[in-house]
Design the sequence.
């Protein structure tokens, strides 16, 4: 049995996932067995109760498991789940993802009540086996078996995409971006089902950019050189009425060195600092600022996707061909900084690099500098721009650092920070369950 401590109160037991058959015990479902340690001390045997009870069928997956003990303390709880309906997971479950469904629970201070931390898998047979010990050291074991109802086809919450992906090394400004296939209305339960754990503790919170996009951002930039794990415990969560998650996911990524680029637009240069030390100064040309469209935005940008070659077409940002200010040009080494069309990219043909701002809003560099920037920056690195009258919007690409921490926390459905050392702040279960 493993566990982790939650500062609020309680102890959590880590539970292993095994086959549906119980590890050899002398008890049967719904029955209790008491084992003496041989001490001749008079003490009432511990008594255990489990809900849902044995024989219960079609239990809502977002129902918590509760274990209670009298005349003793709870020493172990095992929760074994086997999905019996292929439809419940679309027939795509792999054989090696069992650890994603290991159930943990929270034990109260006097160790007499245990509640599951996560929801149950839809369409599964569940066996709960609990052990308690009385004052004489005698053990009592009790079990319950029940089933959960399936998730209805067309009403299964699935993960469409996520940034970063497992295996990525990213910059210190990297958000965790989760895109779902269906709208989420029970946002607090879903937020609490998504657990972010980092080697260096920091407060963070989820925000909902849309009903289908949740974004996690720490209070401050991530500490460099650490690993981060995101556990998406979505199986059984009721995302909206009748819509249940069917799978759990895990994302593992690494925070690399700290690279912060700063750019005061009137100065025509970008300063690159790596791990707090100035590495280089790159001459640039930014937006001409003849109108809002070609004004480089002021604010904290997070580097996004990148292309070795890219055709930049004004039609993609609302300026059709032959309209005033339209353009179509091929560029090299383009790194996106917003969804409104801003990139850092090569534009050696711009003779004003280092002396004047004459671009369509992007940051132009000479070939060698653009290649260095492309090769040596990461998704999630920071570009902090000042000196223009066009403010970078918080939801324009990954402009999430444009919100203060208080503003970001207000955007969380739970309105509570999630500490990256011990996880989510609240319940994932259905109300009144």
Sequence:
């Amino acid at each position: 049995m493993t566990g982790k401590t939650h500062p609020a109160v309680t102890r959590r037991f880590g539970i292993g996932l095994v086959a549906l058959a119980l590890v050899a015990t002398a008890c049967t479902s719904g029955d209790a067995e008491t084992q003496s340690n041989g001490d001749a001390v008079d003490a009432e045997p511990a008594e255990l109760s489990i809900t849902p009870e044995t024989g219960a069928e079609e239990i809502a997956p977002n129902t918590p498991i509760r274990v209670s003990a009298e005349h003793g303390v709870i020493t172990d709880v095992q929760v074994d789940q086997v999905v019996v309906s292929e439809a419940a997971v679309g027939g795509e479950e792999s054989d090696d993802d069992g650890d994603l469904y290991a159930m943990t629970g929270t034990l109260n201070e006097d160790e007499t009540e245990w509640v599951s931390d996560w929801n149950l898998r839809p369409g599964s047979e569940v066996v709960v086996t609990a052990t308690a010990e009385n004052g004489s050291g005698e053990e009592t074991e009790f079990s319950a078996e029940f089933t959960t109802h399936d998730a209805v086809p067309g009403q299964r919450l699935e993960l469409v995409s996520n940034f970063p992906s497992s295996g990525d090394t990213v910059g210190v400004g990297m958000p965790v971006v989760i895109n779902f296939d269906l709208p989420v209305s029970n946002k607090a339960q879903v937020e609490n089902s998504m657990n972010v754990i980092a080697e260096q503790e920091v407060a963070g919170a989820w925000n909902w950019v849309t009903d289908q996009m949740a974004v996690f951002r720490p209070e401050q930039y991530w500490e460099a050189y650490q690993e981060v794990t995101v556990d998406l415990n979505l199986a059984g969560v009721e995302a909206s009425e009748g819509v249940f998650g069917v799978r759990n996911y895990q994302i593992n990524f690494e925070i690399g060195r700290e690279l912060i680029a700063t750019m005061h637009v009137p100065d025509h240069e970008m300063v690159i600092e790596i791990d707090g030390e100035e590495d280089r100064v790159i001459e640039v040309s930014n937006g001409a600022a003849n109108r809002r469209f070609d004004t480089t935005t002021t604010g904290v940008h997070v580097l996004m996707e990148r292309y070795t070659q890219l055709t930049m077409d004004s039609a993609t940002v609302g300026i059709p061909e032959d309209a005033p200010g339209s353009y179509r040009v091929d560029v090299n080494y383009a790194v996106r900084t917003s969804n409104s069309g801003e990139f850092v990219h090569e534009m050696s043909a711009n003779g004003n690099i280092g002396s004047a701002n004459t671009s369509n809003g992007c940051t132009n560099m000479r070939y060698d500098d653009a290649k260095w920037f492309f090769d040596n920056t990461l998704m999630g690195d920071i570009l902090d721009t000042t000196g223009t009258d066009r403010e970078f919007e918080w939801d324009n690409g990954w402009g999430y650092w444009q919100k203060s921490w208080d503003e970001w926390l207000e955007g969380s459905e739970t309105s509570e920070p999630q500490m990256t050392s011990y996880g989510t702040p609240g319940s994932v279960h259905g109300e009144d369950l």
